[in-house]
Amino acid sequence: MTGGHQPIRAVAAGVLLSVEQGQSLSQCLPSALNRVGDHERAELQALCYGSCRWFHRLDAELGDRLNKPLRKPDRIIHHLMLVALFQLRFSDRAATYAVVNEAVEACRALGKPHLTGLVNGVLRGAQRDEAPEPRDDPARFSHPRWMVDKLRHNWPDDWQGILEANNTQAPMTLRVNARRFTRDQYLALLDDAGIEATPTRFAPHGLQLARPVPVDRLPWFADGAVSVQDEAAQLCTTLLDLAPGQRVLDACAAPGGKTCAILEACDALAEVVAIDESADRLPRVEENLERLDLVATLKQADAARIEDWWDGDAFDRILLDVPCSATGVIRRHPDIKLLRRESDIVPLAGIQLGLLNAMWSILKPGGRLVYATCSVFPQENHRIIQRFRKQCADSILVEPEVTWGRDTGAGRQLLPNPDSHDGFFYAVLEKPEP
Ligand SMILES: C[S@@+](CC[C@H](N)C(=O)[O-])C[C@H]1O[C@@H](n2cnc3c(N)ncnc32)[C@H](O)[C@@H]1O
């Protein structure tokens, strides 16, 4: 510990406690990173992500090692032991020799000296023993039971693969700004910079890096040459069938990854309107547009309340990237395993269907709407499309000619692929001409 900094495991335990109490890692990690030394930041991030990723497995083991649960005011020490257990189970053995002593020191720094004996005893036991064989699927796959059950029910042939993919570390993927460079040109620039990359299989402007790098190492990043965006997210522009002169709406736009992809894909669009209801997230769209030197009309609004923001001019193209469970991107956001509740899904589906109905009403006849989620639950995906089409029988479901994903009968589902893209869902709908 140096200069007012706190022991890294104590800080990580606090982060894990905040996540358990409902905050996302992206909400609570930034301030936590300021409480450790510069050289410890990467390690703190790895500890927090890893402990969330393996929370359910580690928690099962810790539960077995404790005679009784800790009292509520001491809950942070439970999380401290989880963080240390993560290191014991998932770091190579040589790196773990100091873990127990440092966890004991962190216990003291957290103001719980009466629990140092417990922390020492539990962790020494874990260090001595082999990792136990997980006793059930939630522990084996390290997911909450409801997610395991739901995925098994939804994807009887794929659920284990999905759960395993969720526990991997996602690759870093770039979208080359087609207005600046071709993919091959940028690949050559990466090569010159000693950064290994390969073209993505399905997205035309994507490059997947062999290893993640800080964005400031990417050639011309600050000047808008590339953006960081998963391959599945990049596919939206291929489905929108963009053409010069179109008026395009991105209805749930922040942080703007897809807004920018739309503008890069077609440079003579009449207008791109980007809406998001979150005042905190909308500035991120502005930042991305600025870096890429692109222009869109931004509005902070609930897109479904069209009377609040719509000017009466219908759209040729609408991208509806709805709020969802984000169960297709768990490998990038392992805190979703702790944050999401089974009871969230029905209300989310209600919001999704409501947004779809509202957006349909402002789509031009002959226009196209792309519905997207980063979810792997049919309830938020093809079942929304089926429910919508029951109410709106004249909507045309377009079957895109693509080689990726699976046809669900009402849209295409990508499952998370440990070697490449995230889990995603897309459905393409067209409004008939009168
Ligand atoms: C999946 S994210 C969008 C990601 C974005 N399309 C991108 O590619 O960068 C969903 C967004 O919808 C926004 N949102 C949720 N409900 C909304 C509503 N009723 N109207 C507008 N935006 C909404 C959230 O604030 C969130 O930023």
TrEMBL record:
<dbReference type="InterPro" id="IPR054728">
    <property type="entry name" value="RsmB-like_ferredoxin"/>
</dbReference>
<dbReference type="Pfam" id="PF01189">
    <property type="entry name" value="Methyltr_RsmB-F"/>
</dbReference>
<feature type="active site" description="Nucleophile">
    <location>
        <position position="374"/>
    </location>
</feature>
<keyword id="KW-0808">Transferase</keyword>
<keyword id="KW-0698">rRNA processing</keyword>
<feature type="binding site">
    <location>
        <position position="276"/>
    </location>
    <ligand>
        <name>S-adenosyl-L-methionine</name>
    </ligand>
</feature>
<protein>
    <recommendedName>
        <fullName>16S rRNA (cytosine(967)-C(5))-methyltransferase</fullName>
        <ecNumber>2.1.1.176</ecNumber>
    </recommendedName>
</protein>
<keyword id="KW-0489">Methyltransferase</keyword>
<dbReference type="InterPro" id="IPR004573">
    <property type="entry name" value="rRNA_ssu_MeTfrase_B"/>
</dbReference>
<comment type="function">
    <text>Specifically methylates the cytosine at position 967 (m5C967) of 16S rRNA.</text>
</comment>
<keyword id="KW-0963">Cytoplasm</keyword>
<dbReference type="InterPro" id="IPR023267">
    <property type="entry name" value="RCMT"/>
</dbReference>
<dbReference type="GO" id="GO:0008168">
    <property type="term" value="F:methyltransferase activity"/>
</dbReference>
<dbReference type="Pfam" id="PF22458">
    <property type="entry name" value="RsmF-B_ferredox"/>
</dbReference>
<feature type="binding site">
    <location>
        <position position="302"/>
    </location>
    <ligand>
        <name>S-adenosyl-L-methionine</name>
    </ligand>
</feature>
<feature type="domain" description="SAM-dependent MTase RsmB/NOP-type">
    <location>
        <begin position="162"/>
        <end position="432"/>
    </location>
</feature>
<keyword id="KW-0949">S-adenosyl-L-methionine</keyword>
<feature type="binding site">
    <location>
        <begin position="252"/>
        <end position="258"/>
    </location>
    <ligand>
        <name>S-adenosyl-L-methionine</name>
    </ligand>
</feature>
<dbReference type="Pfam" id="PF01029">
    <property type="entry name" value="NusB"/>
</dbReference>
<comment type="similarity">
    <text>Belongs to the class I-like SAM-binding methyltransferase superfamily. RsmB/NOP family.</text>
</comment>
<feature type="binding site">
    <location>
        <position position="321"/>
    </location>
    <ligand>
        <name>S-adenosyl-L-methionine</name>
    </ligand>
</feature>
<dbReference type="InterPro" id="IPR001678">
    <property type="entry name" value="MeTrfase_RsmB-F_NOP2_dom"/>
</dbReference>
<dbReference type="InterPro" id="IPR049560">
    <property type="entry name" value="MeTrfase_RsmB-F_NOP2_cat"/>
</dbReference>
<dbReference type="InterPro" id="IPR006027">
    <property type="entry name" value="NusB_RsmB_TIM44"/>
</dbReference>
<keyword id="KW-0694">RNA-binding</keyword>
<dbReference type="InterPro" id="IPR035926">
    <property type="entry name" value="NusB-like_sf"/>
</dbReference>
<dbReference type="GO" id="GO:0032259">
    <property type="term" value="P:methylation"/>
</dbReference>
<dbReference type="InterPro" id="IPR018314">
    <property type="entry name" value="RsmB/NOL1/NOP2-like_CS"/>
</dbReference>
<dbReference type="InterPro" id="IPR029063">
    <property type="entry name" value="SAM-dependent_MTases_sf"/>
</dbReference>
